Each structure stands twice: as C-alpha cells, then as structure tokens.
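[job 0417] fold request received: Esterase
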Amino acid sequence: MDILLVPGFWLDGDSWAPVAGPLEAAGHRVHPLTLPGKESVDADRAGIGLRDHVDAVVARIDALDDGPVVLVGHSGGGAIIHAATDARPDRVARAVYVDSGPLGEGGVINDEIPTDGPDAPLPPWEFFEDEDLTDLTEQLRAAFRAHAVPEPARVTSDPQHLHDERRFDVPVTVIACEFPGDQLRQWIAAGHPFVAELARIRDVDIVDLPTGHWPQLTRPADLAEALVAAVGR
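[job 0417] inference complete; emitting structure tokens
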C-alpha cells in the first residue's frame, strides 16, 4: 500500500522518520511529504494557502499508480488529507487522523495562531494547552523548536472548501491522543460542532494513544504500531 504522511504545522516530511521504518518493514511504500513553503526556514511562504497544500497532496496521489492509497494527517494535516480525500475519494482506501480530524466546509484550521507577515512561526510553549504538551520533555521541546519551520500564515486561516460527498464513504481511523476516544464518541453522540464532519463519515475507528499533541515525538513506537494496524484494516 502507498501511504502518504502529511505533517502538521511547523513540521516537514522528516518528522515522520520515527514511524516510516515500521511501516516500510510491514511491506508498505511510504511517502513523507514536505508541503510548499516548509522546505526550510528561509523558504518563501508569501501567497501559499491551504489549497496549495491540498493540491500538493492530490498531485502526489495522481503521480502514483492507480491503486489505492492511505492518507495520514497529523494535527493541521488532518484538514489537508480530508480535502485531498474529497478531491480523490475513489483513490483513498483509508484516511488516518493523528490527534486531528476532518475539517468541514468553510472551517479554518486555527486562525488564532500568531502570524508574522506570510509566516506563522512556532509560538512560545505558553500558547499551548497543558494537554498539548503532555510527555513533551524539555529535550524534546528543544529539538522540536530547533527543527521547526514556520507555517504559511494563510494555511492557518484559509477556509476549507469541499465538493464531493463521496468523502463520507472513505473509512477513517482517528488516533486519539489529547482527548480520549470515549470523549470523541460522546461529542459525536451529542452533535458537538467540533466533530460535525467526523460524525458524517460512515466508517470511523477510534484508537486511543494517550499522550500530547505530537505522538511522533513523545510515543513514536506506539504511533508506528497504531499506524501499521490502521493501514492493515
């Protein structure tokens, strides 16, 4: 199976290194993506919006053979893989959301992140909730900040646009980190707007991986195991 790994904010394709090896060992072809404007700290991010990131994922799908693919999106990458699924619902065998979920029509990923012109740099740790930072040690924080690349500012605030309701037929796995799976199920049952798009998907598997918002840093072996299992479904 071809697996496209889409990083969250401030991360590039190399951030998937801790999980790529186990996926390859399980016999899969792994494609960690570095999205436009995230090639380096010095990259030009002016004019890059959410759709540019979606289009980059769709282009990679189209560049592969005609077989099915699995899309994995971490954090803000969840919105991106959902739009890519919407664009190519006949190609995506499963979408896996790592501490993230599908973003519905008109939603934005996070327009509260501070920006600096065309850039949205990694904010100070005080910007995040305590749940985000669970298990993120001082050593991990230092390594993360040393390698962080600013997100294109428009990606944080551009509205999502979707077109094909066949996206709801694509099976989904949610790897729940900050919020336990039971909490997500309660929100779905209660019709909470936070999970409105997720609630419309017909086949949803929720897997608990309790840690903070960056499991590829805090629990990489467990995340790799969860991804291998999700793809195997």
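[job 0417] notes: The mean pLDDT is 96. The domain at 2-232 is CATH 3.40.50.1820 (Rossmann fold).
[job 0417] exit 0
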